[in-house]
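Go through this:
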Amino acid sequence: MDPIRAVVPCRACLSGEDLDWLGGGRSVSLALGLMTTVEVGSGPAAGEGGWGEEVWAFLRGRLPGLAARPPAVTVHSEAPAASGLSSSTALIVALFRAFADASVRGRRVSDATLTRWAYEFEFAVFHGGGMDHLAVVEGGALLLDGREQGLPVVRDRLGFPEEWRVIVVDSGTRKDTGHHIRDVRAQLAAGDPVLAAYRAAADEASGRVWEALRGRDLAALGAAMSDAHAAMRDHQRMSTPLLEELREAALRSAGLPLKLSGAGGGGALVGVCPTAEVTATVARLSRDLGVSHPAARVIPTAAAPGGRGEPVPVAGGQRKGS
């Protein structure tokens, strides 16, 4: 019997960090072709010291007849860990899909159900939002309306232009999302006007990011992503001196605007360039950053279609074309 395999992309946030769970604002996600693969039927016992056993225990409460212990798995991820690219969510979603497919052969758990389960599982640990789960299951670009409870609302979908590629600059420093979420929830409870200013600025930037994607306007996209980054840095102190140095170096050497993806004071920056220029851009960045910031990595990638078999419904019941 062929092994059961789940392949799930990671995601970049192009604008609107935290707005997916703060509510009252828009965010834009993009699935990236840095894939996490989980294969059931080989390798060590699943989840020894990791997520596998916990995901299995969650599924045992929802899928009758599962064994006490999870099956063996192998895991491979192309995304840098703790980088703001949702590598942990990609792993969790891949475990949910692979375990579910291995356990209920011929009766596939729907993507909408799997997305909700993965969100509920991760929310119980981190108390964050659902952008990541929708992004890696849906794929492509999503415009999301945040909700204080539950998954965000998918307002629109777009296919990413074929003539563009994404460049990831991994700073080599790990982010701390758990600490960040606790701090922002405290701001929310206190009615902090700084948080309100960030929400307004990030929502406005998200609207412009989406219009730039729809209009295939690369210059407008870079400007809007830069403004989204500035809101993160200036209002919520999500950036660091190292990340700002990397942004300046990328602009100086390759003319590439970069935006921090994900909150937590570390991780990766993302930019978009023409497909025809990606090789030269990566070469310039790698050469220059290799001298000034040798711990940083430059990773070219493309948008990904996601791990879905069918889409989570768009608000209002209509599916938007890509």
